[in-house]
Protein 1
Amino acid sequence: MKRLVLEDGTVFSGNGFGSEKDVIGEIVFQTGMTGYQEVMSDPSYYGQIITFTYPSIGNYGVNRDDFETIFPSLSGVVVKEHCEYPSNFRNEETLDSFLKARGIPGISGIDTRELTKIIRETGTMKAVITSSERNVREVLEEMREYELPTDQVASVSTDKPYVIPHRGERIVVVDYGMKNGLLRAFTERDCHITVVPYNISAEEIMRQKPDGVFLSNGPGNPAHIPEATETVRKLIGKVPVFGVCMGHQVIARACGARTEKLPFGHRGVNQPVFDKVNNRTYMTSQNHGYSVDYNSIMSTDLKVTQYSLNDDTVEALEHARYPVFSVQYHPESTPGPEDTGHLFDRFLSIVRNWKEETYVRT
């Protein structure tokens, strides 16, 4: 038997699977019905315990093709039911064996509906997955003393630059905790990609002679990576820039806006976003705990082009003078709807126009 102990003192009892070790982290919930493998391998969940709201997880197993990164960064998994005998022609191992091999504990038999309601009402908080023998008071004391990490991006970003060669536009991808799906979006469009660490300087990026710079998704609070903000501030006006998720927030901060923590974040594949420019709604895939403060944008060169239909938070920004734009969601959508994949084509169109204008100016 296992226990899930929340920071507010709530205790759930269930059955352990995956690794048997105890773990502490920030507990969040994810609302997708499918895509649990991509979710668990998304670096943006670094240090978090994921509650899956869909009642049965693991029913189609785990395969070699749907990973978003090689080494998962999440701390733990909470489900109502984990499937022990998956059935799918692509299945290669069970959810239990996957988690065991990677040292990630899980707990099942939990009323995830009740748990999600608690998180929605109280907000994200610290939690512990532990054995049923441990004293709850002792566990709560451990949580009080535990500080959530602030080095999430540094922990999941690449250490050294690397290249994925092609003959198309030269795109520098700044890795804040990048999903593989983002790389697929560019390689499918024949881009020559150079992936660089989160703390690279603007000068080093420009030495790569990029046609465009892409800022990836990533975990945690953008305020914890001020060097990234400074880099992007220096890039604006020198090269086209496109950012998603963490990249979106870094662009906002680089232009003088603020970011703030959401009560329980946006994590799921069914997040509706309204586009004010095209007067239409998109369904999007999202995973973030922070958002751009709308009021702080008024004094910047940014304008809001999209907003969330759930809570009116900022979902997309454009720069008034330079070829810079961003979205809070994941246009590559793995898992999720493919409504916004055209944003990569838009970025590359901007890149080509910028190259032509630069050629004329010189």
Note: The chain has a mean pLDDT of 96.
Protein 2
Amino acid sequence: MSETAQKIHLIIKRQKDANSDPYTEEFLIPYRPNMNIISALIEIQRNPVNAKGETTTPVVWESVCLEEVCGACSMVINGKPRQACSTLIDKISQPIHLAPLTTFPVIRDLRVDRQRMFDALKRVKAWVPIDGTYDLGAGPRMPEKTRQWAYELSKCMTCGCCLEACPNVNAKSKFIGPAAISQVRLFNAHPTGAMHKEERLEALMGEGGITSCGNSQNCVQVCPKGIPLTTSIAQVNRQVTLQSFRNFFG
């Protein structure tokens, strides 16, 4: 079959707004080599006609960087949470099923509200506090051995794939999720960030903290950046245990 005759078959789970019932709509769009999911959605945006030949509304999704850095284009692709920008049409089977992440509230179609993740980062103080009122000079250096694994943790783009895959993260659970726990490990290892190490660990001792992890290990399997999330959870769990002993013995 020639390239001009090939079609990409998309079955998309859609929703008009946060309070509407979801429905599915199918699309057939022209195939081009090296297309990703985003380029397929752009084709629908250019010509919003479904597989029945009916004019419809363009599919709504979210994207920013288009190079797997921002994490905004996360969606469920053929049953797996993935980044739409780095998922190539040629590498997945058809028909291609697209759906929004189920862990987060749907805004419209494939766009979801990931505020839950950002609130989790605030809860664990996932930043390095710096007083900018006067020059403090060069900060302490991180040992090279630590820097190497810490850099891997810094690749987290808050995409939400790990929360989508985790069976302990849902609308009825307050579990903070693997991404925020891994960021606790990152900032606790920073020479300056360690000043708030105790506060971060205390945050993970509360409801929805690290004890809510069921150790399913799904998170590390779906992380687009290959972050060792289960290793981070284990390391932070040890830190939390030691902190609980310090608290108990005063």
Note: The CA atoms of residues 36 and 70 lie 16 Å apart.
Protein 3
Amino acid sequence: MEQAAISIRQLEKTYQGGKRALDGVSFDVPRGQIFGLLGPNGAGKSTLINILAGLVNKTGGTASIWGFDIDEHPRNAKVSIGIVPQEILFDPFFTPAETLEIYAGLYGVPKAQRRTQELLRAVHLADKANAFARTLSGGMKRRLLVAKALVHTPPVLVLDEPTAGVDLELRQQLWAYVRELNRQGTTVVLTTHYLEEAQELCDRIAIINNGRLIANEPTAALLAKATEKVVEVTVDRDLAAPPEARCFEKVELKGPRTIVISYDKTRVHAGDVLTALADAGLSVVDVSTREADLEDVFLSLTRRG
């Protein structure tokens, strides 16, 4: 089997004072995928990423990047990964072009092989190449962080909340670029609180809660865990109370003539719901349905955890 882009086994981190941020986490990030790493605030995601970046020392387990153990081959491991941090970190007195040149030099990239202008064009900052970084907007600074993470052409790119505070247009530009990087062979690891982004972008998703791995499946398989379906029905007359039926999981009145019904799609069909309403003497004027999404699965798993 081809080696994983990132391989983590029984990873642990306990901070001074006894706070256990990671508790025996194990998973692989397959090469060539966009991999989602999700979890509530404080779940351990940033600790895990900081361990991979060499900024936090683990207290147990192993981790390797592109086949290089982070303890045995730290330099090779670091050169194999680019990390876009959650915090906006930059030197305000350098221009974007100077910033990329400096970071390329720190990674030992020869001048002839540096891609400063190419990267600035890719993240739509070519016109700001010689402006001081402190004059850039928040979205521009975040895109500069993406370019910084790519100066040494790493095979693995980690994006830690990359679209926080970024407007819709810039977010779409960023995801278009990430998709193109992935098509060219870059493995992408994404953490985000915008779960619709993860659902749309990721091939596979792992969820961490309270320092433990609680899910790690292809996105489609994870979505299949959501069994609840919601149907909203408008009927022909005002109701004082919602109707009841054995096939309803939950039912509530959204308005005098609008009923919101939840049911388990593994044992009940929409036709059963409409039949139950007809049996209650109600005529349906309008109906709409909503499938459960990644947010529903995420909330279900993390609440259970």
Note: DSSP finds ten helices and 14 strands in the chain.
Protein 4
Amino acid sequence: MIKEVCVKNFTDIPRMIDAGANRIELNNDLAAGGTTPSFGVIKQSVKYAHNHNVPVVVMIRPRGGNFVYSDEEFEIMENDLQSAGMQNVDGVAFGCLTADNKLDKPKMVRLCQLARELKLDIVLHMAFDEMTHDDKIESLDWLKSQGVKRILTHGGALNTNILDNADNLRELIAHAKGKIDILPGGGITAENYQEVIAALGVDQVHGTKIVSMK
């Protein structure tokens, strides 16, 4: 079972690993939904986590808000992805959409290409949940062709209980099997993750409170 903890800075990482986190999603500014952390935070986090055999996935997101990026913002994302790769991270999480909430395929192709060149795991983050359910299903083969390893999803609007989205998530998991890992997240805690696992049959979960802090 992989417990991926979403953290907002290096300071949280030692205690989260001590509490049982075995993968880190590293962010800045979780209040804005998570943005790209600084060079120094990434470097120190990777050093510590790797010393404890824990992989680190870095958020590539230049700002909070929507996932429709200008050319200038996209250039920032390219540079941040390359910088993260140079610091020996294990993966990167990103997502680019069009104004009508479909995948921005030209931007996604470029970021996926960069990540593959750097031999990084590619994660599509919760931008995925802005898409319609049908578009999500239809996108799986294309995302697999771009080297996407897993998709972080709540299965519906983030203000809903994830177990209320179990049918949507099970359908995604069924269609994604053998293609891409589905990583449930959003509202999953140390108290309810076993219920989520039982409902969905997954072997990995994601959250800011996924491990119990004494």
Note: The two ends are 21 Å apart (CA to CA).
